[in-house]
Amino acid sequence: MKKKVLAKVLLNEAIAPNNFKMVISAKEMTVDATAGQFVNLYCNRGELLLPRPISICEVNKETGEMTLVYAVVGKGTKELSQMKKGETLGAMGPLGRGFEVSYEVEEHLIIAGGIGVPPMVELVKSLKGNITVYLGFRSNPILVEEFEAYGAVVHVATEDGSVGLQGNVMGLIKEHQPKPQMIYSCGPKPMLKAVADWSKAEDIPTQLSLEERMACGIGACLVCTCRTKKQEDTDWENRRVCKDGPVFWRDEVIWND
Amino acid sequence: MTKLDLRVNIAGVELKNPVMTASGTFGSGKEYGEYVDLNRLGAVVVKGIASTPWKGNASPRVAETYGGMLNSVGLQNPGVEEFIKTDIPFLRGYDTKIIVNIAGRTVEDYCAVVERLGDADVDLLELNISCPNVKEGGVCFGTDPRMVEHVVKEVKKYAKQPLIVKLTPNVTDIVAIAKAAEAGGADSLSLINTLLGMVIDIHKRKPVLANVVGGFSGPAIKPVAVRIVYQVAKSTNLPIIGMGGIMTGEDAIEFIQAGATGVAVGTANFINPTATIDVLEGIEGYMKQYGEENINNLRGIV
To answer: Is residue B221 included in any domain, yes or no?
Structure first.
């Protein structure tokens, strides 16, 4: 049986304004974890009841440690950010469908923005071949050294121009004219949509990691659905971001939601 | 100490214990079956099933609030044919009762599903005339006593299994509605569906839910639910399935003492995937603590 476990906080620190890195010890959660999956973290110390779905940034199966990088966006993540080393919290996972990794692909392009960046670290670790990473931020890039340490070539864009190209990831695409065999993307919806439009025009297979407000996290409650279609279908259906995703193929996703 | 007897009877169907799942929070059991032993549940109440597949409402469909949450799923479901093909065989693999929640936009819709389930291997039907998230049907039927009696009477004509009617708390006089369901031929009542609510994102200056309003559930609503179970238990003879914010065995006991025969666990599943089992064990713990051997002796004692 799968279960919710008590995970021990080994580290929880700010790595940029509003962005925190938490390392938890939870061996059973690391065993099957793959890039693009997420975990549920439970606050449950007051009026906040629902778990917070947080993408997996890195997994160390030997030590049983999991790294989670999250943004403080509301009361729940604020509470998470105040947890101290040595404290424990309820956690469950890994959950959802992660990125599909093919060893036949040699040229990979990862495009991520903002708090969509963290899950791409574990993805870089699991890919073989040449990996290029485009990262977009408003300001204050995160995790750039991690991507480089795992052998990726990283290009950064910031909206305020403080680091790298001034602009966004679409500016990086324009500048570098990449020709990858596979694209992986995670970030704000307008960014994903722009990436999807470009990659469709270039006819490059693309996997997109979506985000939606969730409750159960395991596919039962149907609150986190997004509009999708099967490639040949004209009709659409609502599918669960938590269970059928969060990673979908570009051609499955319908944007006029 | 002698063995605890947790068996309860809902409209002629014996459940091994009173603990079941609240419709819409547990799918058809597949997802939670990876976290809990479904064999231990008195019954699985499945997500509302309509005559045809429904796509449900736009996202966001969930908003959190103090001690609870709002949802506006809008009864997304695969339709009765897919349910019969996939979900019934799955659930029949477990030693638990199957209760099918029935969704519809019209009286004919409800009757069509109930008729289709006539020869299906399910134990009880739960008529949902109380969903706050669909424009037609749902709650429209559940707020007017004459309409309640009419719908129940019509659906009963097609029902081969005992019919539970799930009522909305969003009414002025719940007792009048419950009596109307009883007059229409209901065999049991589920109390309560969600409270209609709304949450506004003051920073974006718009409602959190795409559907604007949604159904409020979770521990914050429990006193309302207990009150309704208590009032209805005192005024009708029907067995009641109590639900609304049950998080623990103690919560469930509260509903039973108010008059509920069965108890359903809903939102708690999202917070704790083994909530159903924890509630069951909590009930057992309470019985042991007070030397109560039979759960039925606790019912309606307040």
So the answer is: yes
CATH of the domain at B50: 3.20.20.70
| Contact between B34 and A1 using a beta-carbon 8 Å cutoff | yes
CB–CB of B241/B260 below 8 Å?
A: yes
Query: Is B61 within 8 Å of chain A by CB?
Result: yes
pTM score, whole prediction: 0.94
Q: Show which residues on chain A lie within 8 Å of chain B, measured between beta carbons.
A: 1-4, 42, 44, 47-51, 76, 92, 212-226, 236-238, 243, 257
For residue B217, the distance in angstroms to the closest alpha carbon of chain A comes to 11
ipTM over 0.85: yes
In chain A, residues with a C-beta closer than 8 Å to the C-beta of B27 are: 219-222
DSSP-derived letter for residue B84 is I
CA atoms of A56 and A117, how far apart (whole Å): 11
Total domains in the fold of chain B: 1
Closest-approach residue (CA) in chain A for B274: A3
Looking at this protein, which amino acid is placed at residue B242? G
Residue B210 lies in a domain: no
Q: What distance in Å separates the CA atoms of residue A210 and residue A253, rounded to the nearest whole number?
A: 9
**Nearest chain B alpha carbon to A41:** B271
Q: Hey, what amino acid is at A151?
A: G
User: What domains appear along chain A, each with residue ranges and CATH number?
Assistant: 5-95 (2.40.30.10), 99-209 (3.40.50.80), 210-257 (2.10.240.10)
Q: Does residue B40 belong to any structural domain of this protein?
A: yes
**Could you tell me if residue B292 is inside a domain?**
yes
Question: In this complex, which of B47, B219, B270 lies closest to A216 when CB atoms are compared?
Answer: B270
Residue B114: give the domain boundaries. Answer: 8-56+75-196+216-298
Are the beta carbons of A222 and B73 separated by less than 8 Å? yes
A115 three-class SS: helix
Coil, helix or strand for B2? Answer: coil
Residue B111: active-site member: no
Q: Tens of pLDDT along chain B (302 residues)?
A: 568 999 999 999 999 999 999 999 999 999 999 999 999 999 999 999 999 999 999 999 999 999 999 999 999 999 999 999 999 999 999 999 999 999 999 999 999 999 999 999 999 999 999 876 666 656 678 999 999 999 999 999 999 999 999 999 999 999 999 999 999 999 999 999 999 999 999 999 999 999 999 999 999 999 999 999 999 999 999 999 999 999 999 999 999 999 999 999 999 999 999 999 999 999 999 999 999 999 999 999 99
Give first-to-last CA distance, chain A, whole Å: 36
Residue B166 near residue B126, CB atoms below 8 Å = yes
